[in-house]
Amino acid sequence: MPLFLLTTATMIAFAANSVLNRLALAGGGIDAASFGAIRLVAGAVMLAGLCLVLRGRINLRGPGRIAGVLSLLVYIYGFSGAYTALDAGLGALILFGVVQITMFVGGLWAREAMPPRRWIGAIMAFGGLAWLLWPGVGPAISPLHALLMALAGVGWGIYSLAGRLNRDALQATAANFILAAPAGVLITLVWPAGPGGAEIGHDGILLAIASGALTSGVGYAMWYSIVPRIGASVAAVAQLTVPVIAMAGGMIFLAEALDLQFVMATVLVLGGVAISVLPFGRG
């Protein structure tokens, strides 16, 4: 599959994770911790099966494995916890705005080339995110849930950077999920339950399985195959298209309102993506 189409399919999968997670939690069919655990287990089972069929074995070792497993756990549970209150598009914008910052820092740390237009695009995109989250300016946002999504963004940024160290994207993604799943189950057991205790309904389980096996397991394997080919900074800004896709999904499947402030912030973010990624000549 051409790189552009593979990247597009991966971004759609990422946006679908936001919609599926929010759909499950907003409907009250499952609690955040249980969703995260089922998502991890479903992803581990799917990826283990793919490795056995396509590779004939499962390899749990590899460079960046500890960083990959720990950052995956931070992302999964920060993501699920945040979506108990945030809309799909808003959560995705916070997530990938923080991802961009994390991956740009990683790119600078690795001394990756940063042309001036990429700096301009990054500042523009970050400005859109800051405008949305500035107290008293954007829509009312729970600080706790925004913080959880920001932590998820740091986790995903580190997870993406760790993926650059692996030659076999499928094996690396499978190993991360397989090793993270038992830890995720333990986290779920000690996760503070709400007033009604843990909730695990039929619809919530199905949505968590779909998120784990398809849009996470398969989607992340595709992502690990992409990141080494496009560089940390380009990968960071490419992911900022996800909030727009997630916003559309939230409007269609969750009847979420389209706020003018969010639209204007999104325009800034996408403008930054265009400036950073599209080849407008040298630099």
TrEMBL record:
InterPro entries: AA-Vitamin_Transporters (IPR050638), EamA_dom (IPR000620), EmrE-like (IPR037185). Keywords: Membrane, Transmembrane, Transmembrane helix. The chain crosses the membrane at residues 36-54, 66-86, 92-110, 119-137, 143-162, 174-193, 205-223, 230-254, 260-280. Residues 146-277 form the EamA domain. It comes from Roseovarius lutimaris. GO terms for cellular component: membrane. This is EamA-like transporter family protein. It is a multi-pass membrane protein. It is found in: Membrane.
